[in-house]
Hints:
Chain A is built from 22 helices and 2 strands. By secondary structure, chain A is mainly α. In chain A, a hairpin with a 6-residue loop joins β1 and β2. Chain A is globular. The N and C termini of chain A lie far apart (45 Å).
Amino acid sequence: MGAVYLFQAVIEQFSIMNLLYVFVATQLGIIIGMLPGLTATMGIALLTTLTFRWDAGNAIVTLISIYVGAIYGGSRSAVLLNIPGTPANAATCLDGFPLAQSGRGAEAIGLATTSSFLGSVAGLIALSFFTPVLGNLALEFKSFEIFWLAIFGVAICGNLTAAKDNLKGWISGILGIIFSFVGMEAIQGYPRLTLGILNLYTGFDIIPVLVGTYGLVEILHNLSKKDVKEAVSQIGRVLPRFKDVVANRFNILRSGLIGVVIGIIPGVGENIASYVAYDFSKRASKTPEQFGKGSVEGLIASETANNACVGGALVPVLSLAIPGSPPAAVLLAALWLHNVRPGPLLMIENPRYIYEFSAMFFWATCAMFILGLTIVKPLLRILRLPNAILMPIVFIFCTIGTFAINGRFFDLIVMIFFGLLAFPMRKLGFPEAPFVLGIILGPMIDENLRRGFILTNGNVLSFFSSPISMMLIIAVFFTLFARSRPVKYVFAGVSRGFKSLVRRGS
Amino acid sequence: MEDNKLVKADFVVSLFLITFSIFIIVQSLLMPKYEAWGFYAMPAMTPFIFGFLLLFLSLILLGRSLKGGGHRIRITRIQIADALRSSEVKRFSTFLGAIVVYFLLLGNLNFVIVTAAFLFSMMLFFKGAKWWVCLIISVLTAFIVWYVFNRIFLVPLP
């Protein structure tokens, strides 16, 4: 019955005016996503004020389109400039940029678009048909489970590096976590590691860190080179090959599922989803050595997961009025402003609203796919500008994006600091991705570990008591030790035993 | 970076990381305990754990670099002079200097003027195009950025 309601809602929303809103807003979202520093959260917040007096239907479809477009749009600068437009696209840089460097820029954008589309479809399915069920699953994630999820994130840090040097990946991740502790902590409000600097009391915002770590480093790297080369701007086949997509069907399914599940967990956003999906994809791949050097699988995994996460993050928004990610939180506020009251009563008071909302998401997804594949070539031509012209302009966008988040001049200093820290780190083989992931995970680990202890009066066993915790602990164990000899030996023994049992049985 | 240089760099980095992790551990120990909350709730807990983890990993890095002969570092005056004279360092420091000047002027002078001047000087220094092309691009970019972000989207600019 749900499919019929969804189909009806999709048909009802099929009008020239509605499509105009969707396409314009999605394109705007793509542009916001492309610009380093400007995030989906900021885009939705900006448009919430501009659409305040609009009809609720038009305003909400505009905001959903901005959200979908921005999360996708960040992949373009990630692929072409190695600068993630939004934190959600940081993992896309790992393989997207090497693909573009090897002359497959247009193909990489085509693959990113298709993956984002398929990820959004996974999110749409979750949003339309599983909202009440998945909403309850979100409630199962308490402090302990979120803590283990964050620890799992730390464990994958060693795997998020192009070289075979896991040690540097972990060091980079732990450094990021330590930097995330700077500022007033959330439980007692004690200012940690601030060195008496007042501006550090609020800690490091993720945007200046991200723009500095990726944006400024890339600018410095390009401008300091003796031979200033032209920016990568190959214009070839944009539409991905069908066989590439089919060959990655399990990768897409897995990444879509990871994106949806991580999306529905409150407070865990698109950025973590894409890193986790990337790591799973690398482990499952027959060519893991290609990851970080331009792997199509890696690019597909990260882009599928971050867009699947958008749909996932909207599930608890509708079912519980709890946002799954920061942009979803702003969207929730916008829904309230337009007199839409999401939450457990939504299914009783307005049972068809979920399908109307899903239909809006569907149109935004279609617009993203069409715009993503059609306006690639003009954008690539812009990137034909020499680095000497392009990079100073990109720097201005980095500056504006960083400043616009809080209107603080201090954030610009933070951007420079992290740029200057990450520049030698890159040269010395310490990858940026775990560092950024560490900055994101640090507060999650700190708050949930201590909150969990406070709630249980310091009972350590409570961290091991739920099935979700146990599953995550097993995942952490295998992430850290699956390649070690003793574990491999045990696995081989178990596998041999199992095979001999099967043979005896038959 | 070549492998032998990387091993030497790892040696220096590991010493820096060891110092940094000890600093974090010491800072953690100086934090208040809030005994009424229970020792498990003290703000120092996670910085201490991760400071200790960083120390452990840094020691592994140090051990690895020592094994590879990373401690055999010889830096001569000529090497330093050559490094400082390299065009890479000159380009890097010029751009960094320009950023500092740009940030100092932002907020004190008009955004469009400062941004156009920054873009023009950088494009000219890095030889992006002919001077008049650089000038047109700089002025247009600064104006469009200001108009779109500040006037249309009401985004605060520095």
